Amino acid sequence: MSAAPQLNYQRVDEQVLAAMRPPGLLYLGVVGLMAMIFAAGVAAFIYQVYVGIGVSGMGQPVIWAFYINTFVVWVGIGHSGTLISAVLYLFRSRWRPSIYRASETMTVFAVAVAGLFPIVHLGRPWFFYWLLFYPNERILQPDFHSPLVWDFFAIATYFTVSCIFLYIGAIPDFATIAASTRGLRSKFYRVLSLGWRGSQRQWKHFSTAYLLMAGFATPLVISVHSVVSFDFAMGQQPGWHDTIFAPYFVASAIYSGLGMLLMILPVTRSVGHLEDEITLWHFNQLGKVTLLMSLVISYAYLSEAFMAWYSNVSYIRDDFNMRYWGPYSALFWLMCWCNCIMPLALFSKRMRTNLKFMFVMGFFALIGIWLDHFVIIAGSLTTNFMPSQWHFYAPTWPELMMEAGSFAMFFMFYLIAYKAEPIVSMSEVKSGLRWLNQARRKTDSTGS
Amino acid sequence: MNTDNFGGSARPRSLVATLAAAAVAAFGGAALQRWRLRQSASARLADVESSADNAAELLAAGFRTKRGVERGVAIGSFRDESDALCAIEKIRRDWPQGFEAYSPELSEHFLEAMDLPKSRTRFWILGGAIFGQVSGWTITIMLSIYWPHRVGNMPVIAVPPFTILSFELMVLMAVIAGVCGLMYHAGMPTFVAPPEYMRRFGRDRIGIAMNCAGEPEFRRAESILRELGAEDILRA
């Protein structure tokens, strides 16, 4: 195989800007399809508002089900974006620059989707703003002792910080696009770049601000999903009241985010012809992190099972018995396959650098985490302290349509962002050209 | 229910108003100062600016002070990063008149070679973080006193839950203040390019702009840039 030509500033610009060229029919068709599915989800929501929350499968004792499950899953998907953009930045990871923009974009839209579902879950969604503190004639204020209020603040902060992080990181790239294009497009990106010129004084302030923001975003990542886990762990419900929930939820969040990233990155890479920027080296590294998260999740499952047995509390034991052998047991064992067994293949480098396998792995990681949260949320609620109330939950068509709509909304916005912003950070790839070229040479020589 | 609460509705309103006034004073004052500086800079450059941001188009205009001494910059553009790095190091040592370097990437080597003072953005972030912490605790404590809702046998002022909220507000305010600090110190937003800026410095070239006063300095700067490997040299 002939060695690939060295990447330089000019080639990086050309390749990334080529990915932003005006879209073709296939792209428009996919965006249109996503828009239609999203519209169907919106229609289902309107129907639910019109008829009432009873159109969902929820009721006593399963008062939290599909919507909260979807919320938790989407917040989790957003986590790997900040992990890659902030945590890996602090560690000066060399494989970060090529993939962090895609993961940050994923984070912003995933959290945006997530933020809708607690509102969808409300019986009277038009009163969602009651979670905010504001002067009002009823002299009522939110209860700051409640995990749901913490959740509101955590998600709102996380969304704002993710948007700021995405935008600030993209400013130098917007300036590059403004410098590389002419006419209206150039003017548009010049406005977005806010007059960035790339002087060393600007870079100095930029690097300081970005580093410190990354320093703040890192504990935020951990805090947000810990707070989400407190929604459950603070309750007395068997199956929820567990001290391991915070680290377990953070690990599962990162795992699901990596799953989504493993699904969108191969497509982003091949559709945008970004093989020089997003290399097999990146997938190799992503595979290692995915494997690590899978092992942490497996440990959490074992720990939960041990604690259920060791606690000798009949309610908890019964709940876990029901989880392993009850009506949702098929979902539980499928979840174990997706989250614990299948990722073990990532011990092999050959599998980590096989894009088709990585795509499938990402898909199953998402399925696994979705089932994980379903088993915890709906599965635990079916069997509460009153056996006379036990009721097995099944989703209804509005819930399924809104679930599909959430994925369609995410992919639609991601596809739009794919054409509107450089999906690979040009300025950061230029900074790490040395490592990227080295990785490309290695990939060529090993053929993997 | 504590009926005393109904008499105290002015307290959170005054708190919110105080916080809002403090925020407006802090950010508004900084923005006003920035606007004034920018106005004076715009007036200074008004005689040489055109709508374009390309230095080549400004070249013919020159940049003269009232005393008639030609002032401006000699601009060298470099393709190679190591050449540019050597040039920055040498110019910093030998050119006390001052210079600026432009690059399309964040290079730690360039920043080290430029030996710039530490960014003051960090103080903005610290200030934002402190403001967030203080406002987080203030809001939660004051509103809990105002609406004392006892849940789960937790005290009305409970430290663990309020820590979570104040932490979130601390991160939020620190990041927002960081953005404001970055904008302020990096001179953004601005849509007026400095005369020495060339579009290709945003793409694939590294630019060094040396401040000059008078023809002899221009000639010396040009010869230094040529010696250091600049592929194009312009005046602006």
Give an account of the 3D structure.
The complex is a heterodimer of chains A (448) and B (236). Chain A has 16 helices and no strands. The mean pLDDT of chain A is 90. Chain A has helices spanning 9-19, 25-51, 66-90, 100-121, 147-180, 183-193, 200-233, 245-271, 280-311, 314-325, 329-341, 349-352, 355-382, 397-420, 426-431, 433-446. Chain B is built from 7 helices and 4 strands; from the N terminus they run ααβαβαααβαβ. Chain B has a 4-stranded antiparallel sheet. In chain B, α5 runs antiparallel to α6 (159-185).
Q: With helices defined by DSSP (H or I, 4 residues minimum), what is the helix count of chain A?
A: 16
- Given as residue ranges, the uncertain stretches of chain A (5+ residues, pLDDT < 50) are none
The residue fraction in helices of chain B comes out at 40-55%
Which spans of chain B of ≥5 residues are poorly predicted at pLDDT below 50?
1-12, 40-68
Order of helices and strands of chain A: HHHHHHHHHHHHHHHH
Regarding quaternary structure, what we see is heterodimer
Shape of chain B: elongated
Q: Characterize the overall form of chain A.
A: globular
Structural class of chain B: alpha+beta
The total strand number of chain B stands at 4
What portion of residues of chain A is helical? over 70%
CA-to-CA gap between the ends of chain A? 12 Å
- What is the N-to-C order of secondary-structure elements of chain B (H for helix, E for strand)? HHEHEHHHEHE
- Average pLDDT of chain A: 90
- How large, in whole angstroms, is the Cα Rg of chain B? 26 Å
